[in-house]
Amino acid sequence: MTLNLQPPSSSPPSSSPHRDSSSSSSSSEAASALTSLSLSEPPNDLHQDGTASAIAIAIAVPQVMPPPKPTPRAKVPLEKGYSQMVWLRLLQTEPDLAGLKGQSPKRLITMQEVKQHKTEEDAWTVLRGRVYNISPYIRFHPGGKDMLMKGAGRDCTALFNKYHAWVNAEFLMEKCMVGILDVPPT
Question: Where is this region: Disordered (predicted)?
């Protein structure tokens, strides 16, 4: 595929009534001035007749590419009776999902202590500076237990923000809060 890249002629056709001998000389002067300013040889991507190959045009014209498609996450089927609606009901009826047995959810917890809680039966995680017991939520997590367990025993804030930045985790996990991360001074 070739395209003609030469500009249209600015002089009227020879049969035009506007063309006379005086304009012919001024036109030829302008043409010689333009010729002296132009390159003596056409660029490598242009043919002698002023047309360019499709490859040269594709390189010269910036291409707008669509954004990459997000990697689809595998859907994990939840067990019967473990939907988000059931979890929300559980939040209203169960007083101690965190397993605190009357202790305050405001106590300071070190990262060293969080690291000790990384089994399905006893899983803690840090999210935005708060420590949560995620064990009661494992079977309710829409992404499955394997994904949730990636945050067990560690700070999962970056992982959470990658997949659920818009989710109000403080509301969903408020009854599972065991304390606040004790960050040592730097």
Answer: 1-48
